[in-house]
Each structure stands twice: as C-alpha cells, then as structure tokens.
Amino acid sequence: MRPGPWNTLERAAYDTCEPDVAALLAHPGETLSGLAGLVAAAVVWHEFHRAPARGPARFLPAILALLSAASMLFHATFAAVFQQLDLAAIPLLTGLLLAAALVHRGHASRDRWPALFALFAGGGAVLPFIATAAGYVAVTAQALALLWLWRALARTHPAIRADLRRTVGLLFPAAALLALDHAGIACTSPGSAWAHVLQPHIAWHLAAAAACVFIARIERVLEGDARW
Q: Residue 9, Cβ neighbours under 10 Å: how many?
C-alpha cells in the first residue's frame, strides 16, 4: 500500500511517471493538468452558446467536463477503481462521435444514433471493470475508427480538413507520450524538482484537451452540413 489518505484503496493497475505524494493529491501534476479538460469544455460551451448545436454536438461540453472530473479523481487518488472509472468515461466521447460519424457517412439513419451511442458508450464503459487493459483497447479502437471515418468525410466536407489535421497532429504525438509514460520511459527523475511538472502524462492531458476543441468543431461542421 502507498502512503497518504488513499492508502486503503488498491493502487492503479498501470503506473505513470509521476512519483506518489503522501497528500490529498497523490499525483498533483497529473491531477492539476486535468483542469485543461475543463478549460476545453468551457471553450466549446462558449462557441456553442453563440450558435446552439442541435445534434449530438450539444452534449460535448458536458461530456468533456465529466471526462476532466473523472481524470482528476483518478490522478488525485491513483486508485485502481478510479482508473477504471476514468477509462469507462472516455467512451462517452468516442462513442457519441463514432455514432454520429456513422450517420454522417450514411451507414446509419439519423434516428439510430442514440442506439449506436448507447452501444458504443455502454460497451466501452463495462470493459474496464472486467479488465483494465480491455478498457484501453476499447477506447483506442473507437478513436481509430472515428479518425478513419473522419478521414473519409474530409473528402466530401473540406471545411473539416484543417481541424482534422490539427486533431491528428496533437493526438498522435500525445498518444505516443502516453504509451511511453505507462511504460516508464522518458520519465523525469523522481528526485528532480521537475518530477511533478515535466512528465509525459501531463503533456498528454494538455494536448488531448486542445484536440477536443478541434474535435468539437469538426462535429459541429458535420452537423451543420447535414442540417440536424
């Protein structure tokens, strides 16, 4: 068991580079960098508030805020159960966007997107509690399928191309940093003064939050073109 107020909870199955702290925030750097998700949610809400979305995009600010809260709870405690909860929340985002993309591509009718969303989000949410690794596989598969669909949609919706390039340019390097982080590679030394500032997982949080702003814009354009 690790020291601190959360020592009665089982430690997370997959470690990160940031060293544990015997305090309310077990990983303070990773916890506070999770606030970037709330900033992204506020930016998206502000953009949508000026011209309200009518399709699935209208749920994105609330989902982004929920993802940020789940991430911060996990890193504050670094407990296994909250790592699973953090992973279980992500399919709310990927599942909603994937269901919408299938409609945009003509693979499903518009009235089917809630059922598709429930399938993707529900299935993805259950898997982490069966096996944490399965949760990572599920969200990765959904994200890759979404990017593939968006790549096809960019041919017929040129207005999303710039934001799609920005999204990919942020997410792929950030995902590589996340993988290095869980592998214990490229970590700042635990004894360094920068151990809670310069870590791959913190970079992942910042890049992913920025990408979410562009992701919301992509969905907004697609829904506008389809006149939801």
A: 16
Residues 6+ apart with CB under 8 A from 161: 154
Indicate the residue type of 131: A
Give pLDDT tens digits for 20-35.
998 999 999 999 999 9
Cα–Cα dist 228/211, whole Å = 24
The residues, any chain, with a CB within 8 Å of residue 172's CB and separated by 6 or more, are none
| CATH number for 43 | 1.20.1070
Q: Report if pTM > 0.90.
A: yes
Three-point CA angle 78, 12, 188, nearest 5°: 65
pLDDT tens digits, one per residue of 140-160: 999 999 999 999 999 999 999
- Name the one residue in this structure whose structure tokens are 């600010």: 61
Euclidean distance between CA atoms 123 and 95, whole angstroms: 9
**What is the domain extent for residue 203?**
28-226
3-state secondary structure 141-208: HHHHHHHHHHHHHHHHCHHHHHHHHHHHHHHHHHHHHHHHHHCCCCCCCCCCCCCCCCCHHHHHHHHH
* Burial (0-12, 13-18, 19+ Cβ within 10 Å), 179: middle
Q: Please report whether residue 163 resides in a domain.
A: yes
Query: Is 161 contained in some domain?
Result: yes
